[in-house]
Structure formats: C-alpha cells, structure tokens
Amino acid sequence: MFIHIGDDNVIRSEEVVSIIDFSLISSSTINEEMLFNQRKNKNVIDPQQKDTKSIVITKDYIYFSPLSVLTLKKRASMITTISKLEDYSEAIEE
C-alpha cells in the first residue's frame, strides 16, 4: 500500500522506517549528523518549506513532510486496517 505524505510525495508503506517530529531533530546530534550525511549523499527530499512538521525516514530517502506525525500515523493505520479486511466481493456477487 501507499501513503501520501504531503507535497506530492507518495511512498510505499513497507519502506517506512521511522516518522519523527521535526522539532525533535535539532535536539539530537545523532539526528542532525544523519540528516547532514544523507543530504551530502542526495538522499533527502526537502521542499525547503517553512511548514515542515515531520520527517519520514524510508530505506532509501528522508522526506520532509508538512503533515504532523499524528496525521501520518493515522494514514498508516488506516492502510493497515484496509489491508486486513476480508474480500467479500465475490460472495456478494453470487
């Protein structure tokens, strides 16, 4: 399944490693160092907007998102719920 994370970015849900609140990035030197190294390797998708609320870390890239961690969590949970639903469409057609 896919998750729309804002700014025309859609990612595969199984690629998500972590979603971090943007305000927490500056409080950790490890996070800042990771972000610096990934920028150097051109693995950061950053639209350079002031409204960044969260950072989505995937296997290959880091995305800056204007959506909050809670909103992204709800979207990911909704996808998990949908994927667990039984497919009764064949039973209804009969």
Describe the protein.
It is a single chain. With 94 residues, the chain is of the alpha+beta class. It is built from three helices and six strands, in the order βββαβββαα. The protein has helices at residues 29-40, 69-84, 89-93, and strands at residues 2-6, 9-12, 16-21, 44-45, 54-58, 62-65. The strands form two sheets. The protein has a four-stranded mixed sheet. It is elongated. The chain starts with a strand and ends with a helix. 14% of the residues are buried. The mean pLDDT is 83. InterPro entries: RemA-like (IPR007169). This is DUF370 domain-containing protein. Pfam families: RemA-like.
Secondary-structure blueprint of this entry?
Elements: E1 2-6, E2 9-12, E3 16-21, H1 29-40, E4 44-45, E5 54-58, E6 62-65, H2 69-84, H3 89-93
Parallel strand pairs: 4-6
Antiparallel strand pairs: 1-2, 3-5, 5-6
Question: Characteristics of this structure?
Answer:
3 helices; 94 residues; 35% helix; alpha+beta; DUF370 domain-containing protein; 6 strands; four-stranded mixed beta sheet; RemA-like; two-stranded antiparallel ribbon
Report the structural category: alpha+beta
Per DSSP, the total helix count is 3
Main sheet specs: 4 strands, mixed
The whole-number mean of residue pLDDT values reads 83
What would the principal axes of the Cα set say about the shape? Answer: elongated
Count of DSSP strands: 6
Uncertain segments: none
- The radius of gyration over CA amounts to 16 Å
The rounded distance between the terminal residues' Cα atoms is 28 Å
Q: Note the beta-strand portion.
A: 25-35%
Instruction: Give the helices and strands as they follow along the chain.
Output: EEEHEEEHH
**What topology, given as strand order, has the largest sheet?**
3-5-6-4
What share of residues is helical?
25-40%
